[in-house]
Amino acid sequence: MSFFDKIFGGKEENPERKSFWKKIESSEDLSQAIEASYHHRIAIFKHSTRCFISTTVLKNFEKEIDGLNDKPDLYYLDLLEHRLISNKIADDLGIRHESPQLIIIEDGKVVGSSSHEDISVRQIV
Asked: pTM here?
């Protein structure tokens, strides 16, 4: 591991996601997430696993979530592995694609969205 990887969290071949994430890997997973939004607010984090900025934002966001007693419903999308689903989110929810991106959904509709350094737990709780 290089010096920069130690400081900035270099690339990992199979990164372990925190246990609070629910993965979106199919259209069915996305439908279930949207359905859950009718019962409580959810958030989808769209992450580019090859992007240093996205990785940094994700790690910072996970640290914020770790500090919460009550964890919100959080969904994780690896947009490089599941680009068609990322496109479907943009089309179905009428939101512009960004990466990294946090999309807040309530009652099947986007109620908030942020990207890059604007992503924060404050948007969900």
From this structure: 0.85
For the chain, the domains span 19-123
CATH code linked to domain 19-123: 3.40.30.10
Average pLDDT, the chain: 88
Q: What is the pLDDT of residues 8-64, one digit of tens each?
A: 555 444 445 678 999 999 999 999 999 999 999 999 999 999 999 999 999 999 999
Task: Classify 80 as helix, strand or coil.
Answer: coil
* Residues with Cβ within 8 Å of residue 4, at least 6 apart in sequence: 10
- Nearest-10 Cα torsion for 99, 65, 7, 79: -20
Buried residues in 90-117 as b, exposed as e (16+ CB within 10 A): beebeeeebbbbbbbbeeeebeebbbee
* Cα–Cα distance, 41 to 111 (Å, whole number): 9
Alpha-carbon distance of 29 to 32, in angstroms, equals 5
